[in-house]
Specification:
two-stranded antiparallel ribbon
C-alpha cells in the first residue's frame, strides 16, 4: 500500500436518514484503518461517514475530501 496522504484532521459522522451531523471526531480518536480508504490511485482520507438503516440492514458509506464514495459496508441484523 502506498504512503498515506495528509488527513484534514476530522471525520464527520452523519445520520443518513436525516442528513444531520451526529458527531465530528478528531482522527486521533479513530483507528488508523478507518482514517483512510485504499483506492486504485492510493490511500484517500475518509472525511465523512454516512450511516442509515433499511429494514434489517445498516449501510455505512465513507466519503473522501472531494465527496467521492470510497467504500460502502452493509451489516445484516441477525434475527
Amino acid at each position: 500500500m502506498s504512503q498515506a496522504p495528509q488527513h484534514p484532521g476530522t471525520i464527520v459522522y452523519v445520520d443518513g436518514t436525516t442528513q444531520k451531523e451526529t458527531e465530528r471526531v478528531n482522527i486521533t480518536e479513530v483507528p488508523e484503518a478507518l482514517r483512510f480508504a485504499p483506492t486504485p490511485q492510493g490511500l484517500v482520507p475518509v472525511v465523512r461517514v454516512v450511516a442509515y438503516t433499511e429494514g434489517s440492514r445498516r449501510i455505512i458509506r465513507e466519503y473522501g475530501p472531494a465527496g467521492e464514495l470510497l467504500r460502502s459496508t452493509v451489516q445484516i441484523k441477525q434475527a
